[in-house]
Please model this.
Amino acid sequence: MHVMQIIPTGKNHKEIIKKKEKQLFFTICINQMESDWSGRWNHVRKFVERGGPFAHPDFEPSTEAIGFLQDVCKILVIGAGGLGCELLKDLALMGFRNLDVIDMDTIDVSNLNRQFLFRHKDVGKPKAEVAAEFINKRVPGCKVTPHYCQIQDYDESFYRKFHIVVCGLDSIVARRWINGMLISLLKYEDGELDQSTLIPMVDGGTEGFKGNARVILTGITACIECTLDLYPPQINFPLCTIAHTPRLPEHCIEYVRILLWPKEEPFGADVTIDGDEPDHINWIMDKSIERANEFKISGITYRLTQGVVKRIIPAVASTNAVIAAACSTEVFKLATSCCLPLNNYMNFSDIDGIYTYAFEAMKKEDCIACTNIPKALKFSDGDKLQDILTYLIDSAEYQMKSPGITTSLNGKNKTLYMQTVKSIEEKTRENLKKTLNELGLRDGQEVYIADPTTPNTITFKLTLGCNME
Amino acid sequence: MADTKKVVIDKKNKYDRQLRLWGDHGQSALESACVCLVNVSAVGTEILKNMILPGVGSFTIVDGNKVSGEDVGNNFFLTKDSIGESRAKAATELLSELNDDVSGDFVEESAEKLIRANPDFFSRFTLVIATNLCERELLELDSLLSKRNIPLLVCRSYGFIGYMRIVIKEHTVIESHPDSAHEDLRLDHPFPRLIDYCNSLDLDSMDQKDHSHTPWIVIVYKYLQKWKESVCIRTNKEGFPLDEENFDEAVKSVNTALVPSSMPSEVRKLFEDPCCKNLDSESSSFWILVRAVKEFVDNEGKELLPLRGTIPDMTADSTRYIQLQHVYHGQADDDVGIVTEKVRRIEQSIAKEEPVNTLNMPPPNYENCISDHDIKLFCKNAAFLRVFRSRGLAEEYNSKTANLQEIAQHLGDEDNDDDDFVFYVLLRGVDKFHEEYNRYPGVYEDQVEADVTMLKTSVQKILHDWGLNPTSIKDDYIHEICRYGAAELHTISSFIGGAAAQEAIKIITKQFIPFNNTYIYNAMKQSSLTVQL
Model:
């Protein structure tokens, strides 16, 4: 039987996985071949049954390898959108049969120009379910299991089941969360990583004509948090520009969205803006035009209004196809060892010709996610709790969303601030204005941060100087 | 009436995410295009899929083969039930189902027969995409298409290697959408309107609010005028500069804002092109516009292109930002006006040369009247114009006319150990092998080893023909290619399928810049290479 060999450095850990998968393998040989036809796997077989000079050093060509791919290997696809649809098709045609797909979204008309498993009649239905049904029908023997939910709805026991996780996400927070989850599954013995606990993550992303694909060997190569600075923090227009000195049509639209909508409540008191509701967009557009006219600004259209309100990122079938294909090739390499995987990041753009650039993203020595070193937080004891929060949100290194802080004082756990639960937020809000000194926090004190960007609690060590620099 | 309106809205919603990339005019070009796919392969159907989804006008598949079990194995648009049926028909059915707006058609005939029996069949297409043709068929198709001035895109997926080749006589791009371009502000060559406007503002006498909301373009202009005695920065009582965001912006932008205004060399080259110099009634509107802009640059423009007319956003009050915007817009409009006059004069002069002979004179050539909108678009993009001409396949495949300089450069250098160009040579090698033995190397399980030696000979023959060291290809690569046995992995086809579709869309919409002219993808390293052959 062929096993998964994932470490490019050539560490032999196949025995571990072999043991783990042995039982499974016996049950499969029986189910195999029912849905196959002559010649079906001729293409794939050449890669797993023949050796080659560029294969992984541990690669053992074998006629049983395809059985491993088809019946043992379990792959999780996160996202059933532009990349997800492509990933499912690609993996199914490469011989993978045990696929799970998670997506919390339903189908929108604007998906149809690229998410090719959906038709007009499917608008409004869950993406994961429609995509799974389509693949299962089109590719005999392939079993895609849909999960119409958020990734945060599942815990370790779910994620531990998979051999490889592939992401086709448009959300950085979700990427960071799954990255943290896979890292939390790693087990170390005497400081050595137990490689049977490693679940590689293959991640793809696209934006217009640009995209990237990367392979993360959790705990071994650079993870999402190691390279967080590759995602520039979202840029917002300054509020004073929006409120007082608009110059661009976008400023006028933001004025209506942020300031006018809550004031005028055009569709009722508790109605928030729905970017897909034409009545909402039309109202915002009309009001934006009024404001634009006042300042002699031109160029407001329905398309621009919707783009600004929904923060739409352009997307096209071709880029998604390219990036998903690169990711799926990497999954195939990881699962079969028939070729060394990408080490470890590839950028793609086809605005001016076609450009690809593969490079090794470096692991960050003190990464908050994939190293166990508590990070230092340097503040002065006169700083307020709010200052720590602001820092965690604003710094390019952490880019947190709504951090909660707890600590342990005199052997008791104490919640300093938590935003996500309303009653606790109200109780702890006072603390934000208190200085670290008033809160009883001393130099060297450990604080624990929870944030939507990770399923794990992150430990920080406070380093308190006397005065602020 | 209400129904058609609904269809339009639906289409706008469906295509919203791509309309933001190529606009309504790009979309309408795509929707009027007819593409032809020669041979159903995994890469072929993937390309069509990625063109049908965004709404290409129509497609036609030419394929005389029947579906095999192997075909279905790597192709999402063939099913088990279709084994034994026409490949063209089966693929057309499943592809058509992707998008109701697109019409699909097929011809159950081999390309080879069609080329000979009905060469005019291909005249109707905007673009032809060819996969899985042997060298001889490919050259025949190429010669047929180049006579009819129809672009050809050749695509291939072979093991871990992808290959594409564009053959197009001339492709002109006005909207190349550069990713990062310097602003065209002319601070080094200020035009009268800009001078007047900047002079109308007196930084010293302004109240604080106005001072800190003066657009930085004005600040940089003032500094340039008062190079030595800088009196612009305001200080507080202690003599420290005040914290003014607009001044920070001015400092940050000064390096890029003061890049000297000049003629881009790419555009300068176009002015020297024979197509620009020798206009006649056959000249395309692109070249008429190039000529008009050249005349502008030579005269009124004083060696500079028409002003782009846009400014970046910057800290400023609304009134003065809009005023400054008008200063630039106004100058750009004036420049467009001058170019328009020149265009009209050129149109007249080349129309005059048309013989006015018989009674059944053809109606005035509508194409010769370039719209005001197009002239404006052209002037705005004048710095980013591109012309692309690729050599034909016949030249590339003839060792006497091949681009040996480029080839030698990639193969000759010892340091270029990991140059992906080696895969181009190997693909030529497997074709030579196929020509001799009528099968690809490594197709049969029991012949892989023997084929390695034979393929080596084929590759050496090619290198020898080019006059290059016949042993310059490492054995490892020969082994790897034989391992593939012409297998077409779905994911490699899907990668090329995505990339090729986008190149096709670039050609059709005349927006963005296609690669020139050969592209090699190496999925082992996720690397790629573009070479001109």
In short: Chain B has a mean pLDDT of 91. The beta strands of chain B are 34-38, 58-62, 103-107, 127-131, 152-158, 161-167, 171-173, 386-388, 518-522, 527-531. Chain B has 22 helices and ten strands.
